[in-house]
Amino acid sequence: MVFWSNRRGARQELPRLRPRVAPTEVAKVDFTELVPDPVPFLGQAAYIQLEFFESLSKAVIGATSMHSKERLSAAAGIALRKHHELIAELRRLGVEPDEVMAPFAPATDRLGQATAGADQYELMLGIHVTSGMLDDYFARLAEGLPADLRTRVRSILAAGGIGEVLDAELRAAIESQPGLADRLALWGRSIVGDTLLIARSALRGSEPAERAGDRVEPVFTELIAEHTRRMDALGLTA
Amino acid sequence: MVFWSNRRGARQELPRLRPRVAPTEVAKVDFTELVPDPVPFLGQAAYIQLEFFESLSKAVIGATSMHSKERLSAAAGIALRKHHELIAELRRLGVEPDEVMAPFAPATDRLGQATAGADQYELMLGIHVTSGMLDDYFARLAEGLPADLRTRVRSILAAGGIGEVLDAELRAAIESQPGLADRLALWGRSIVGDTLLIARSALRGSEPAERAGDRVEPVFTELIAEHTRRMDALGLTA
User: Fold this and answer.
1) Do A105 and B66 touch (CB under 8 A)?
2) Across the interface, which of B50, B73, B102 has its CB nearest the CB of A80?
3) pLDDT tens for residues B187-229?
4) pTM (predicted TM-score)
5) What is the mean pLDDT of chain B?
6) Are B3 and B212 in contact (CB under 8 A)?
7) A22 or B39: whose pLDDT is higher?
8) Taking the domains of chain A in order of start, what are their residue ranges?
9) Could you tell me which of A54, A47, A52 has the C-alpha nearest to residue A106?
10) Structure confidence at residue B1 (pLDDT)
11) B65 in helix, strand or coil?
12) Under a CB-based contact definition with an 8 Å cutoff, are residues A214 and A20 in contact?
């Protein structure tokens, strides 16, 4: 996907290949310096929300108590609303959302399959981990969008509630089922890599993106730190 | 489920068992004479919408084109909104929606399983037939609710769009796949009985309900007539 440019201009005078900067040497990442092309940005973000919606729907179907169905269906509704609001932004830009989302479908579908797990609990943790990391990631990237679009996208992505529902559902399950915590701790750890690959795919392909890749490295570190906090909240070792 | 009463009063003076009136002899059904108890009415209607949401989510997951996913996810969103608006009415009445819905879950889940079919097309037709008949049925029953609740429930149930999406999806599939029409015509016919059982379950159990059962008989005839029109619209023999 070639959709990154540098707000400061193309800088053709810079060497096209420069030595990779080790992540630790990059002091501060200014995400507003990274300018995602709005169309593919919205397309990928929108399709990812559709994937979360599908996974949350599976969790609704698999829920055994009415109370869980209620909470999870509310969470599914939040993901679906984000999806539809993001494709409304694509329409506003005069493009056909289906065509824009299509290139992101295969990798996103694979993430959904890879994180669906073996049962209801692994499914829920899979959504908790991937949506926790990716919602946060896309919200940060959105900082580089043009001002008016940035405001709207920020508001769309800020809609919370999914993490709270999954945290509450998982917490109740872990408390009532001895041994589940150990299994879920392992499972949560195994998902992080797949999720970071999707985050990285938003930067792949262009020369400026390669450079951007260096600058966003610390962001991945932060994403993992927040993942650790989510796992800690559930009493799981990340 | 005992939740029917007669707005005109209990009429204890009437014989408790009277000869069944043949449906053809009942000239006109005044649904406003039937007074559903709001709580179980809302509980059953709400749970049925949750079932439609789950079935539509399965259709989103099973859809192979992005365009179909878009349309079906919008339809799933409509069912989910109806569900949440109906449980909001239950909360307004001071009851716990989970407890009110629970008794309706087994039969509704069975309907969902019985109408899920063998593939994406049978699944979509199953939703089209059951939601077409039951949305219409519950909208008619809602006429007997207290005035303010009736207005809100009528507005909740009137939210359209699901039938249009399923009609468009099924029409496209039938046009492009020779032989599908015959299979779906058979399938559609086989669903009607299961759906009517659910409709009937809303009337079962009480003496007044038994009498109501006679009076609503023509409504079932109308439900089937509308089912026939939906099938005709798809070029399927009902």
Assistant:
1) yes
2) B73
3) 999 999 889 888 888 765 333 555 555 666 778 888 889 999 9
4) 0.82
5) 84
6) no
7) B39
8) 34-233
9) A47
10) 44
11) coil
12) yes
B73 touches chain A (CB under 8 A): yes
φ, ψ dihedrals at B5, nearest 5°: -135, 170
SS3 category, A124: helix
User: How many Å from the N-terminal Cα to the C-terminal Cα in chain B?
Assistant: 31
Percent of chain B with pLDDT over 90: 66
Nearest to A165 by CA among A196, A127, A112, A119: A127
Tell me the sheet residues that pair with B36.
Answer: B4
Q: Closest partner residue to B66 among A53, A70, A102, by Cβ?
A: A102
Per-residue b or e along A152-182, where b marks 16 or more CB atoms closer than 10 Å to that residue's CB = bbeebbeeeebbebbbebbeebbeeeeebbe
CATH code at A34-233 = 1.20.1260.10
Query: Which among A55, A58, A66, A87 is the top mutation candidate for probing chain B, defined by the most B β-carbons within 10 Å of its own β-carbon?
Result: A66
Tokens 């079906």 belong to residue: B72
Q: Is A123 on the interface with B (CB under 8 A)?
A: no
Q: Which residues contact A43 (CB under 8 A, 6 or more apart)?
A: A90, A97, A100, A101, A103, A104
Mean pLDDT score, B165-185: 96
- Which residues in chain B are closer than 8 Å to A74, comparing Cβ atoms? 84
What per-residue string of b and e applies to B95-108 under the rule 16 or more CB within 10 Å gives b?
bebbebbeebbebb
Q: With an 8 Å Cβ cutoff, are A60 and B58 in contact?
A: no
Inform me whether the pLDDT recorded for B58 exceeds 90. yes
The mean pLDDT of chain A is: 84
- Cβ contact, residue pair B67, A98, below 8 Å: yes
Would you list the DSSP string of B13-59? Answer: TS-SS-PPPPGGG-----GGGEEE-HHHHHHHHHHHHHHHHHHHHHH
User: Hey, is the C-beta of A184 within 8 angstroms of any chain B C-beta?
Assistant: no
**Residue A87 has which token pair?**
């494709």
Bridge partners (DSSP) of residue A35 are A5
Predicted ipTM > 0.90: no
The first and second tokens of residue A80, run together, are 């679906």
> Could you tell me how many residues make up chain A?
238
